[in-house]
Fold:
Amino acid sequence: MQAIDPTLGLRERKKIRTRETIRQEAFRLIEENGYAATTVEQIAEAAEVSPSTFFRYFPTKESVLLADDMDALIMDALAAQPPDLSPVHALRRAYQVTIENMSVDQQEFENARQRLMFSIPELKAAMYDELYRTITSIAEAIGARIGRDADDFELRVFAGALAGAIMAAYDPGPGAADTVYRALDFVDVGMPLT
Structure:
């Protein structure tokens, strides 16, 4: 769920509200009827939009759940972190700032999205594509912080470890922010298993 900036024009605010309504109705219908039994037409009807309007906001039914509004917020917060923080501590702090700035409704919305994503088998393959996008975003953001190219092998492996740690903290569903912090802290100390 995205916060609506009151300085935006009426048209932009309406677009954001329409997108959020589509997502909220999709979540509700999927929780009530199951993912496979919920159609785009049902979602559109519940959101009081046409199916073509649905597809202007989301290219597929899967994308309603996979759209991650937090990524952009976390990457913006990461860019604002002091350069003396390690990449892991900068990402941890960016995640913390993002969570602290979310309303209760936004946190509940994100928890519902995570719970649904991890519980629907049909979304597992699509989640791989989203994970790859997240790894790329992390590699670009950290690469900019430390002066390395986002395609650098070691940087991409590092970004994959961070994304995997966060994903593991969420699976099988949303946990408290402390779970993500714990995962990032574990990566930061070298992931000792002994």
In short: The chain has a mean pLDDT of 88. The chain has two domains: 10-60, 68-188. Residues 10-33 form the longest helix (24 residues). The domain at 10-60 is CATH 1.10.10.60 (Arc Repressor Mutant, subunit A).
